[in-house]
Amino acid sequence: MDPQLRSQMDGLADGAHRCLGADGRAWFIKRRRGAADGFFAAEADGLERLRASAGLRVPQVLAVADDVLVIEDLGHGTAGAAAWRRAGQALARQHRHGAARFGLERDGWCGDSPQPNTPMHDGWRFFAECRLLPQARRARDAGRLQPRDSDALERLCAALPDWIPPQPPVLLHGDLWMGNLHSCADGELALIDAAAVHYGWAEADLAMLTLFGEPPAEFFDAYQQAAGIDHAWRTRAPLYNLYHLLNHLNLFGSGYLPAVRKALQSR
Q: Which of 175, 205, 221, 230 is catalytic?
């Protein structure tokens, strides 16, 4: 690692920091002492997998350790309509990278929540056993879900093949809300915070892009033209986003319970 960056890093408090290397390049440092084992390694691995897909821009990883991740500082800018179109096409390219099974050979993180990625051939089983049910058990054990909510979720998991059509496993960002679709200094869009990368349903990435705001129409139009995806994915978005709402319920509290219940009633 750049000695100048190393010396700056040693004195940094936990959090996010921007630093300059000896070559004048800007780097973004995430520091968390006492981070869980594999926390930053999962993010570094996810970034490299996304980079290899030749989809959207991804920051270069300079260094990773148990308590720190150093990546390229992409700066901040504003994406125009043309950049959003290119981003939609790029996400479609990323989603062309498939695998034989859902999941990944390593587990990851969705925010601060562990994310199991046990490889499976059955996408419905994977979504139930590695996404919805672990979050539901965690919420129930913490008293955030009532028994009736848990029962409704288990019934939903059993009926997933009735609601979600067969889809192949493709490379997903996995936590693709608008905040992780970053506008760089040059106005292009990039993917950041990639610890949730895995192989899953392409529609799940699209669905999360509608959970907390959403990209302009140019993005989805370009994706549709490049990927030819079924327009009905929007009707299924609440099912995919139930995972993220449960995760937010566990991370941030009962304010997310009404949204969880609304998603449970969407089918």
A: 175
